[in-house]
């Protein structure tokens, strides 16, 4: 090939390979989430209650000691993990999990902080900083995604536990809510319902179903996605005090057919989704790509894993937060439980059934 022709082919895109997947870690058991450590290793949660170290190209490490007791039933177990923004100096991590009651008859979503030992073998100083109220006898809809905001506050998504769907519309419980707390579990004075009689002060927004995606965009805005029932999955821009409608409004229907409630998709005082999926893709994991590793077309897009169809969903929004691009990548790859952007600017996917972490190669 001539030296003159090659630049032309590159410009036209002829010589560019499509992004592909490469396996980074395998041999995991029902992995749910991953977090990146400064030394290049990963923390990985397994739903049965195991937290492991993992390294690219190596077998997963032995279980890390000190994980709090989890209720690994149904959709519950050890779920999300994130590292503190100052992890390099304080070794702090946050875990979200299904917390059993003392009599083990009920459970709820909980958030704990802990310190990872210098040898990466144990958790110490474990503290439960948030516990969903009330607990419930349910195996479903724990939510359980964690985000640290630029001001150091923590956001946590909470499912309505399925049995508590009607209570997603009331403020005296944590079902179907996103909450905001300090790293010590304290309630920020500027939370929207602090002065509302009868409201739990941790609540930031309400009317959610089961959110397994929570992320900040490049502007510091909070986004979440949630499972609809049969149809009606949503991507929402989250703002304080707003009502996102479940179960009063939805674009989905009951499993097996039939309307939910009055069968409405819109109502005054309730937010419409920025993106909706009918039929459902069963979304899990959410990140807005900030790097330029994949070129301008992908930068700024949201990436969402699909549990139902096993693909990676790419959604790009315009200045008005409406969809301008949407595509399905890597079809039939397997149940994607988490999507993260690594320190290297590449996308990492947690494949639940395959027990793998894979990386998207540019």
TrEMBL record:
- Do the record's keywords include Transmembrane helix? no
Q: Which residues form a coiled coil?
A: none
Q: Does the keyword Transmembrane helix apply?
A: no
Q: Which InterPro entries match?
A: 6-blade_b-propeller_TolB-like (IPR011042), Glc/Sorbosone_DH (IPR012938), Quinoprot_gluc/sorb_DH_b-prop (IPR011041)
Alphabetical keyword list: Oxidoreductase, Signal
- One example GO MF annotation: oxidoreductase activity
Task: Tell me where in this chain the Glucose/Sorbosone dehydrogenase domain is found.
Answer: 28-359
Superkingdom of origin organism: Bacteria
Q: Using the record, list the residue span of the signal peptide; answer none if the entry has no such feature.
A: 1-17
Task: Give the EC number(s) listed in the UniProt record.
Answer: 1.1.5.-
**Could you identify this protein by its name?**
PQQ-dependent sugar dehydrogenase
- Give the originating organism: Pelomonas dachongensis
